[in-house]
Write a structure and sequence with these properties.
Bound molecules: 2H-imidazol-4-ylacetic acid, zinc ion
Number of strands: 17
Helix content: 25-40%
Largest sheet: 9 strands, mixed
Strand content: 15-25%
Shape: globular
Structural class: alpha/beta
Number of helices: 16
Distance between the termini: 30 Å
Amino acid sequence: MGKLTYVKSASQLLCIDTGHGPRTGKGMSMLGIIADGSVVIEDGIIVFAGSDALAAQFLGTRRGEVEVIDASGKVVAPGLVDPHTHVVYAGSRENELELRLQGEKYTDILQRGGGILNTARSTREASEEELIRQALTRLDRFLLHGVTTIEAKSGYGLTVRDELKQLRAARELDRRHPIDVVPTFMGAHAVPEEYRSHPESYVNLVIEEMLPAVAERGLAEYCDVFCEQGVFDIAESGRILEAAERLGFKLKIHADEIAKNFGGAELAAKLGAVSAEHLLKTSEEGIRALAKSGTIAVLLPGTALFLMEWAADARSMIDGGVAVALSTDCNPGSSPTVSMPFIMNAACLTMRMTPAEVLVASTINAAHAIGRGNEIGSIETGKRGDLVLFDVSNYRQLQYYYGMNLVHTVIKNGRTVVKGGVLVDRNEPAD
Ligand code: IZC
Ligand code: ZN
């Protein structure tokens, strides 16, 4: 019998049980709260979730070493899931923040060879080990903010060699760090400078060389495209994603981030994409299409804030039956943050999502957005022992106190990795 981790006396245990598929409508407000709750984890898997009284009985049937974690006065939630990051990159772009404060547009900076192309230059120059080193620091910070699983996109290599390098780095992060990393290929993130005069050749390179090379090596589960005015149009995005689907990739789209009614949401729905991300400028028809296709809306309110734009219309999406998930969009241009708790605050305050909806969107719906809805995102027997203990006595306080990191303890696969707000175990192999 393995080692048991016993988390007890939570003032609120937020079970957020799975149900069938991602939560929509009123289902986004159901947290499955147990007052005075306990969780028992054995060999990394949850074997009990329920009341303290029943937990004591359950433990009476078990033997072996038990690590007891007292959660009294705290809220215990599933480990947070961040379903949209560009965490593997080198360099930083604080100069662009100042340019944008002076009125320059994000897309104009990209057109001039800055933006994503700036990060592509530093990412191409960096060695694989250097990319891993920089991203490990970011992953430590994710963990300190209660995040136990993330998605990570490529898209700063923009050559076959450098896209593979970024994806190998993501795989290495998954291996070396307690956080689980789900990889997405995003070679169609920008047209690199050397293809500026003939962008169609770059689309061909993505389809004919990059996608097969990534598929052959099993380096990504998803394929994503930056479908945007001046980047990849609807026809190009469609071609790339259809080719990806034929190779077995699941689909995501950066949709309707900047240009109004560009049609990204409609394309995501038409292709049956797992998720459409951003959706700041999506039309009412786009929202209806997402609801109908069951495509998850991954919303990134930190990006809207950082680009000084209006946030996505989360209320119309939730009220219209779209499953909404939340994410940091962690990247060096439009959202340099790892703080899911801050994003959760922003979702509440800039998109009027309720504290309960925010929690569902950051756990079970985020897990479904990366194909992990059956393993993580809720506290139920059989799921991974990924938990976060917040220093608040009820879940509503998580959105009431804002801009603070209230994460006290993080448990990943049954192991305590953050204690008292401090990293205690990073699990980097010695080699
Ligand atoms: O580096 O600017 N929007 N991709 C699409 C980004 C933002 C990341 C970046
Ligand atoms: Zn993104």
